[in-house]
């Protein structure tokens, strides 16, 4: 199958994803299970990464600021902008695409090769909607909150690292964080819009690869790898397109 | 009754089924037999709609299933129970939750009523006191029986079993065969079993269809299969010298 076949089949699949669930009660239960499984379970990893990445961003910015013409609060400002515009929405999404994407593809792929999806179909259940809609919606709705947590922790990481190493004071850092906020606040909406799109990609693409797995354990592994690669590429492409559309 | 009329099916230019027609009556054990790769599983998947037929009709009690849209098929599928080769139990659900699953999706029963029905079905297949185990914690034979319990939970009119004995020892295989037969007679279901297990054929085959190279090569009962002179059937059923000798003795006696 070439790329266009995949895109076509993916779009056809999406028509079945966004259909009314057979039973709302069952959907609700699956939805909150997915919130827990995909979103809540990702928070510790996101928190760990965010604190250290924030620390590294601020330290690297501080160590490269050699010009006396640049005010010291620039460090906080650059840390904030890097975190909000790129690090938290994009890098965290890429990392979660690796963690969650392989999980989703192998879960659905295993269900496919062990005929569990056929069993759903025989019962008259819309297997695509049943398996994918709760994952996609749960991530699209709640992943932005994870990214907000990541932004906050990244800024805290930057503050701790800088103050700890004596590169700047708390006041200077906070001043940088607050600098030009009224002009730059739109960046937050841009970041959250991106996050929602990335959340869709990092669940829908692995679901697609899992669902159309054919064969056995080897193919499940391959689908899982393909899912992570494809969702990462899609996130990077979407990042470029959205930046062009929203920021420029 | 399930009827297939002149069904043809091909995959990527390779024809798998050629003009197959058959009638499967309720209250009987209908067996589709044949060697691996001859098209019997494809035929079963065409009947239940997992594969679309290229030509021909699949008719459930006068309702042309092959001409229906997804929504109409869903209504018929609620009347179908299926036991899969690997049981296809949902890994993340407990034994009782697996059996309750179709009830949860398609009925408005209360939690208590669903549990009661699931317990009854599990009891019927002799699974007692295992409600909270996960499928991975059950043996192959148990998984098959749980699969049967799930298949009959909605009181189906049609029961499909895809190689119910695969991976089971002969003793457990007979238990599963007899269980399917009992349920078929008890609930007057139209049961279609896909198998290449000769013990099943001899033990429970009320009506047998032999598929060879995608064509219906023979049709009859387990009594008739012993005395048939159809070369294709003989070479499949009596493949070993032991079976050949046994057949000769049976015929001579």
**Overall geometric form of chain A:** elongated
Average pLDDT confidence of chain A is 93
- Structural Rg of chain A: 21 Å
Total tally of structural domains of chain A: 1
- Proportion of residues in β-strands of chain B: 15-25%
Structural class of chain A: mainly alpha
Share of residues in strands of chain A: under 5%
| Shape field of chain B | globular
Number of domains of chain B: 2
Mean pLDDT of chain B: 89
Portion of residues within helices of chain A: over 70%
Main sheet makeup of chain B: 6 strands, mixed
Quaternary state of this entry equals heterodimer
Strand order of the largest sheet of chain B: 6-7-8-3-9-10
For CATH, the homologous superfamily of the largest domain in chain B is named as P-loop containing nucleotide triphosphate hydrolases
In short:
Chain A is mainly α and 248 residues long. Chain A has helices at residues 3-17, 24-39, 43-63, 74-113, 116-123, 127-164, 170-178, 181-184, 186-211, 217-247.
Describe what this molecule looks like in 3D.
The complex is a heterodimer of chains A (248) and B (253). Chain A is an all-alpha fold. Chain A has one domain. Helix content of chain A is 84%, strand content 0%. Chain A is built from 10 helices and no strands. In chain A, helix 2 runs parallel beside helix 6 and helix 4 runs parallel beside helix 9. The two termini of chain A are 36 Å apart. The mean pLDDT of chain A is 93. Chain B is of the alpha/beta class and 253 residues long. Chain B has 2 domains: 146 residues, P-loop containing nucleotide triphosphate hydrolases (Rossmann fold, 3-Layer(aba) Sandwich); 55 residues. Chain B contains 10 helices and 10 strands. In chain B, helix 4 packs across helix 5. The longest helix of chain B is centred in the last third of the chain and has 18 residues. The two termini of chain B are 36 Å apart. At the A-B interface, helix 5 of A face helix 2 and helix 3 of B.
